[in-house]
Write a structure and sequence with these properties.
about 250 residues, Rossmann fold, six-stranded mixed β-sheet, 10 helices, about 35% helix, globular
């Protein structure tokens, strides 16, 4: 297991956002989190690389283990954790610099200065994110000159440039058109060969198309978790069935 989530409770000040979450996330598989808005999906995904540390009044209890080690141990370097566990957000957020410098930014901050090494990382990352052919002749152009779908693939490439083990994706296609969405889904399917992917999605068809395992969240609780085919074809909880058949949410 890549992640083991054990009895996790999380509060924002007095509001309990997660209640007694238990889940194992398999390595080199795609795990989807589904559920209505405000049910805890994004809160949990941001807990996996301690992004929630940045939110004032956030308090967490329980254990989150990465390869068997607690991510909250005093010895755990948060910067190193976030290198291992990358994040792609809902809206594309390229840095206001060139396409090349967006990708080289992470490796540079981790001490890589050699130009030929950086060139190789930029090319590999853009290829892995399926955007090399569209960008190879314009690497010096501003990243913000790309379309929304291209910007999101660029942000995925930027995450891959520091060689993470896990890629967290918080609704990565919700701001994109159907063609760009299809490209990102195809890309995510290819990434599972090398990375563990955890994706939050509002789009249940997307979860069925790309994920191996799915967790259904409601009001901060994990209602059901299992193989995606089972969750969508034979859910064991009535609330899961009601949600995926559109009776609420």
């Amino acid at each position: 297991m890549k992640f083991q989530i054990q009895n996790v409770n999380l509060w924002y000040n007095d509001f309990q956002a997660l209640t007694d979450i238990n889940m194992d996330i398999e390595a080199k598989r795609i795990t989807a989190f589904i559920g209505p808005s405000g049910c805890g999906k994004s809160t949990l995904i941001k807990s996996l690389n301690r992004m929630n540390d940045l939110i004032e009044g956030c308090r967490i209890e329980g254990k989150i283990l990465l390869d068997g080690k607690s991510i909250h141990d005093k010895e755990m370097d948060v910067n190193h954790l976030r290198k291992r566990v990358g994040m792609v957000f809902q809206k594309p957020n390229p840095f206001p610099m060139s396409i090349y410098d967006n990708i080289a930014y992470g490796p540079r901050t981790h001490g890589i200065k050699n130009r030929s090494e950086l060139d190789a990382i930029v090319e590999k990352s853009l290829k892995d994110a399926a955007i090399w052919e569209e960008t190879k002749d314009r690497l010096k152009k501003p990243a913000l000159s790309l379309s929304g779908g291209q910007q999101q693939r660029l942000c995925i490439a930027r995450s891959l440039a520091v060689a993470p083990e896990v890629l967290l994706m918080d609704e990565p296609t919700s701001a994109l058109d159907p063609i760009s969405t299809a490209k990102i889904e195809e890309l995510v399917g290819q990434l599972r060969k090398q990375y563990t992917v955890v994706i939050v999605t509002h789009n249940m068809q997307q979860a069925t198309r790309i994920s191996d395992n799915t967790g259904f969240f409601l009001m901060g609780e994990l209602i059901e978790f299992g193989k995606t085919n089972d969750i969508f074809s034979v859910p064991s909880d009535k609330r899961t069935e009601d949600y995926i058949t559109g009776r609420f949410g």
